[in-house]
Write a structure and sequence with these properties.
Layout lengths: L2 H8 L2 H11 L8 E2 L10 H18 L1 E3 L3 H10 L2 E3 L2 E3 L4 H9 L3 E4 L8 E4 L2 E4 L7 E4 L3 E4 L2 H12 L22 H12 L4 E2 L5 H15 L1 H6 L3 E7 L4 E2 L1 H12 L3 E10 L7 H22 L5 E4 L1 E5 L6 E2 L3 H17 L3 E4 L10 H17 L3 E3 L4 E2 L4 E3 H18 L6 H4 L1 H7 L9 H6 L15 H6 L5 H15 L7 H17 L5
Parallel strand pairs: 2-12, 7-18, 8-20, 10-11, 11-13, 13-14, 13-15, 14-17, 17-18
Antiparallel strand pairs: 1-7, 2-4, 3-4, 5-6, 8-9, 15-16, 19-20
Helix pairs in contact: 3-11, 5-11, 6-7, 7-8, 7-20, 8-10, 8-20, 10-11, 11-12, 12-13, 13-14, 14-19
Length: about 525
């Protein structure tokens, strides 16, 4: 046996010591109560100018609503001008409709009431990545995602204290038929997690199935009166909504469930190359979509969403973690606050194919900007690789660790008597140290955020532990987490009713569209 192999075998106790450190973390909170100021990029005059430009887009250029005559009639009845599928809005119409009925904040109830989240105001809710058809890990590389991967990521999310929401399509289980996989995905969120979740939007019937499954869990009357599902409705930028997204949004709005109305922007291709031009277009598209929801059911929760990145003007490929989307994010958050609705944007976005330095830099740039901007619902906070094409197991663990750090940052500075620590300063006095002070002993377990991924030991200790890099340590963590995971209890009768619903719907649905 060589020396390195011997060192690797002796490192078995390392994971136990890491687990012990995790126990010392602060109790898990269902969401973050922000205690620090927002980063305000633009003054009121600049924001008002962008708002005026958005109104000009809505009034002069208009937004297309394709394949949905009902949406056109709703807008016509509210006073908009309809030209085929192009809708032009009188100046101020969208803003007045939204501000008259859309809630400034709302509670999304989880099946475990202790996991319910408040979206809006000074709260921040973090959710994992959404939509990748591929997954990646150190052991198997890049491959198509399966329903087993989907279950794994739901479990990892449920076990991550820094993530507050189970998310939606955490990866696309391509081993199941497109027409039926939404049933298994929603069931997985309900069965293996008691955090709130997102519903399907790939067809109006799939949105309705999501709502109906939620009714099995919460009861029909509760669902009608409360929000238990959030859904992602993307504009088909530039300035277009398609029938699929409109149909799904209508289902959720009719049932009083939340919709994230989110323009999907790759600046330079789907919006102008300038920050101000992109912001005006984002605001116009979001206003139009949120107005549609309020016309379907006044008071249905909406979230002003953005997904804004840029492209390489040389290759046309999306880029992430660059300065321009960060500036868009800061300003869009302020626009949402001025409108009076919750705000959504991205978390750990990157273009890297693996969990490397590029992934870390780009993800950190986006994640921290989103936190400082005042994002209320932070989608893609963990796992995102390859511009959203892949969900990474190791990347997920590393991102979830960073999500916990964001929670610590947003808590701000403790100005209580204990936080002031004057008794410690008096006890120690000049020339000594604080390690043995009574205040230190009383606070050390939760004094600083403790990463379960980073290695801060000496070189000799790192070598003894196997000379692992961050991705290798994360690989071990996700495997241990899944091996030890126990799903939260689910009432047996409810579980049986969900399975019966799924069996019936699967028998009614074709295997192919």
């Amino acid at each position: 046996m060589n020396a390195r192999a011997s060192r690797r075998r002796r490192s078995g106790g390392r994971s136990a010591r890491q687990a012990l450190r995790l126990v010392a973390r602060a109790p898990e909170a269902p969401f973050i109560e922000r205690q620090i100021p927002y980063y305000e990029l633009l003054d009121d005059g600049a924001l008002a100018l962008i708002e005026e430009n958005a109104e000009t887009i809505l009034e002069d250029i208009g937004i297309e609503f394709r394949g949905d005559p009902g949406a056109l009639e709703s807008f016509r009845g509210a006073g908009a001008d309809i030209d085929h599928e192009r809708v032009r809005f009188p100046r101020g119409m969208c803003r007045s409709i939204i501000q008259a009925s859309a809630p400034r904040e709302f509670t999304q109830h989880a099946r475990n009431p202790e996991r319910s989240v408040v979206i809006g105001g000074n709260r921040t809710v973090l959710a994992p990545a959404y939509g990748p058809p591929f997954v990646r890990c150190l052991d198997k590389g890049r491959r198509y995602a399966t329903i087993e991967d989907f279950r794994n990521f739901v479990k990892l999310t449920a076990a991550s204290p820094g993530l507050h929401h189970s998310g939606g399509t955490v990866c696309e289980p391509v081993d199941l038929p497109v027409t039926k996989r939404h049933l298994d995905m929603v069931y997985t969120h309900i069965k293996y997690s008691d955090k709130p979740f997102m519903g399907s939007v790939t067809h109006p019937d799939r949105a309705q199935d999501s709502v109906d499954m939620a009714k099995v869990v919460f009861g029909e009357a509760f669902v009608d009166a409360n929000t238990v599902i959030t859904s992602l409705i993307n504009a088909n930028s530039p300035m277009t909504y398609d029938a699929t997204m409109l149909g799904a949004a209508r289902v959720y709005a009719r049932n009083n469930q939340a919709t994230v109305i989110s323009p999907f922007i790759l600046a330079g291709a789907m919006s102008p190359v300038t920050i101000a031009g992109t912001l005006a277009q984002i605001l116009a598209e979001a206003l139009a979509g949120m107005t549609f929801v309020q016309l379907v059911r006044p008071g249905a929760p909406v979230i002003f969403g953005t997904f804004s990145s840029s492209i390489s003007m040389q290759s046309g490929a999306p880029t992430f973690g660059s300065p321009e989307p960060t500036l868009v994010l800061y300003a869009a958050a302020a626009l949402a606050r001025r409108l009076g609705v919750p705000f959504r944007s991205g978390g750990g976005l990157c273009a890297s194919k693996i969990a490397d330095a590029q992934a870390a830099y780009e993800s950190a740039n986006t994640l921290q900007a989103a936190a400082l901007a005042g994002v209320n619902f932070m989608l893609h906070a963990a796992g995102w690789l390859e511009g959203g094409l892949a969900m990474g197991y190791e990347k997920f663990v590393m991102d979830a660790d960073q999500a916990g750090m964001i929670g610590a940052l947003l808590k701000g500075v403790d100005l209580s008597e204990n936080g002031m620590a004057m008794d410690a300063i008096r006890e120690v006095g000049p020339g000594s140290h604080f390690l043995g002070a009574a205040h230190t002993q009383a606070n050390f377990e939760q004094a600083f955020y403790r990463s379960n991924v980073a290695d801060n030991n000496s070189f000799e200790q790192w070598r003894e532990d196997g000379e692992l890099d961050a991705a290798q340590r994360a690989n071990r963590i996700w495997k241990e987490t899944l091996a030890n995971y126990e799903p939260p209890p689910l009432d047996e009768a409810t579980d049986d009713a969900l399975k019966a619903f799924m069996d019936r719907r699967k028998s009614e649905l074709p295997d192919k569209e």
